[in-house]
Design goal:
Strand order of the largest sheet: 5-4-3-13-12-11-10-9
Order of helices and strands: EEEHEHHHEHEEEHEHHEHEHEHEHEEHH
Helix content: 40-55%
Number of helices: 14
Bound molecules: zinc ion
Strand content: 15-25%
Distance between the termini: 25 Å
Length: 381
């Protein structure tokens, strides 16, 4: 996936940097995550949070979110829709957009497709998302269908605004941005713009998922997300909806499932054809003392705070080559948690993110080996 700030190998897992920071993990550490220290290829930032604080116009004045947070690799911003619907108070939805009160200070705000685009262009991530409505779960067929109709109308308005204003992105044709990025080995081609991805909705109804996918594909966007999943439905339903939606999305454009999942889920979805995923789980679990490890071939979640690790001289995961497993014992990490030391959450987040990135790196190697073997097979066309 070629983006203005670099090429991303897919399938890819994207760490979530809600407030322009992946919680507790500094940018130079993000650049060295994983067994091969290749680091995160792309991270996510949240439009709703950055709009409220410090404000998108401030970030625009400081050159965009890449420069603001000193991250020269690719970035993606969500539309703000999911947070408006899940975090804010007293929201009022109309065809025009959503009025809501800030979860920080109760102040009143209005997000429309146009405003979401304006904010995302000011932030200047490589990938921006259309503004969508996220239907609650469970929701009736009629309610889901009406919400999906609104999402489609908002996608068209998002695209119209984006096309008219995409050159306003902070780094558009900015020679200083170009030179600075080039020194880091990640050239930003002057005159490039963000990529605007569509979001398929349709709840847990396969026919609505198909209709939504077809409507968005007709808009000819450079990538498509599958939204509204992992909202409390059983995992078999998530998998079924992903499979039924992928059928209707072009294979030659990035396909992104938002907000999933456990390590075995992201592996399964990647093998089904999903190119991009993001989730707060590795960092959130890490801050709570939970680590992912492969025990006897199975992905297991361990609670490092348990007494059984008090004198355990081994690493979190003997098969993990991350900077934490190369250096620290389970006993030491357990002690940091017991003493409420902030380093504990940071080190566990680094391991968990590395575990996710290494999972995706392995899937990429295996998929590419499979396709090489397929190319050489006399039976393949
Ligand atoms: Zn590790």
């Amino acid at each position: 996936m070629a983006l203005p700030h670099g090429v991303v190998e897919t399938p890819v897992f994207m760490p979530v940097g809600t407030q322009a920071t992946v919680k507790t993990v500094a940018q130079d550490v993000l650049e060295r995550l994983g067994a091969n220290s290749a680091g995160a290829q792309i991270i996510l930032a949240n439009t709703y949070h950055l709009y409220l604080r410090p404000g998108h116009e401030l970030i625009r004045r400081l050159g965009g979110v890449h420069r603001f947070m000193s991250w020269e690799r690719p970035l993606l911003t969500d539309s703000g829709g999911f947070q408006v619907f899940s975090l804010s108070k007293l929201r009022k939805i109309s065809d025009e957009g959503v009025e809501f009160r800030s979860h920080l200070d109760g102040s009143k705000h209005f997000f429309s497709p146009e405003h979401s685009m304006k904010v995302q262009i000011a932030l200047g991530a490589d990938v921006a998302m259309v503004f969508d409505e996220c239907v609650e779960h469970p929701a009736t067929y009629e309610r889901t269908r009406a919400s999906m109709g609104l999402t489609h109308a908002w996608a068209a308005r998002s695209k119209d605004y984006f096309e008219a204003h995409k050159h306003e992105v902070p780094w558009f044709g900015d020679p200083s941005s170009f030179d600075e990025a080039e020194r880091d080995g990640t050239p930003v081609a002057a005159g490039q713009t963000q990529k605007l991805f569509g979001i398929v909705q349709g709840g847990m109804y396969a026919d609505l998922r198909r209709e939504s996918a077809e409507r968005l594909v007709a808009m000819d966007l450079p990538g498509y997300a599958i939204g509204g999943l992992a909202v409390g439905e059983p995992r078999e339903v998530t998998r079924e909806m992903i499979a039924r939606t992928l059928e209707w999305l072009p294979q030659d454009k990035p396909r992104y499932v938002m907000g999933v999942g456990y390590p075995d889920e992201i592996e399964e979805y990647a093998r089904m054809g999903v190119d991009m995923m993001d989730c707060v789980l590795p960092t959130r679990a890490g801050r709570h003392g939970l680590v992912f490890a492969r025990v006897e071939g199975l992905v297991t979640r361990l609670n490092i705070k348990k007494l059984e690790f008090a004198e355990d001289q081994g690493p979190i995961d003997a098969g993990c080559g991350c900077m934490v497993c190369r250096r620290y014992t389970r006993a030491y990490l357990r002690h940091l948690f017991a003493a409420s030391e902030p380093l504990a959450g940071m080190l566990l987040s680094v391991h968990n993110l590395s575990f996710y990135l290494d999972t995706m790196a392995r899937v990429r190697r295996e998929l590419s080996a499979d396709s090489d073997a397929g190319d050489k097979s006399p039976a393949s066309p």
